[in-house]
């Protein structure tokens, strides 16, 4: 008998993966958590029946949400990660030897526990002595820690359920206050094909708060449409002004000095979504 997992990516679009085995299924106080062994993408983490990450394509998302910002900031010492309980973002951050402290705030302990058990390739960064894991509300954390971080990464789920507040103007203003005088932040901002209104709203809001706002993109096959965006808000540094020849080599599969620059080359239909 064939077993398939199906995600309703929009009201009119689904993606299905054939499943070899259900490795874990549970429900936390926040969401349904499952780990599936799929034939196409390997081990896959889903939350509330929405694909979060998998072994086959995870590196694209995790490398882009981290290295673009870390290589834009002149000297990032203290980094905050909100969400991203699978650990992939933390894994990429600790590749940067100049980073002295990573504070990882994840609201759901079950996601962290599942990542440690079923995704050792992603959660390996949790073992780095520079990493502090806090099971807490990221929105509350940024409000309580002003002028603290050089970089903040918002590795959130889609803007539903616990993550809704991570896409609000109030939150972005709290992020601004939590950053040091030359700080910057990066957030995942969904698909230009299926979330165009969100991208317009978010980039407009962030550009009203941060002197530098940039949208950049990558390809993540299991996310709706495959074409995914990230938004950077920066108090000082412009990622387009980075001397890519000075970017140190990293153990990456997607990100590179060339990708750092070309990720900001946007198609005309995406440019139309941005503030004029």
Automatic annotation (TrEMBL):
Its EC number is 2.5.1.16. GO terms for molecular function: spermidine synthase activity. Keywords: Polyamine biosynthesis, Spermidine biosynthesis, Transferase. It is an enzyme of class 2 (transferase). Pathway: Amine and polyamine biosynthesis; spermidine biosynthesis; spermidine from putrescine: step 1/1. It catalyses: S-adenosyl 3-(methylsulfanyl)propylamine + putrescine = S-methyl-5'-thioadenosine + spermidine + H(+). Spermidine binds at residues 62, 86, 155-158. NCBIfam families: MFS_SpdSyn (NF037959), PRK00811.1 (NF002010), speE (TIGR00417). Belongs to the spermidine/spermine synthase family. This is Polyamine aminopropyltransferase. It comes from Desulfoscipio geothermicus DSM 3669. The lineage of its organism: Bacteria, Bacillati, Bacillota, Clostridia, Eubacteriales. The gene is speE.
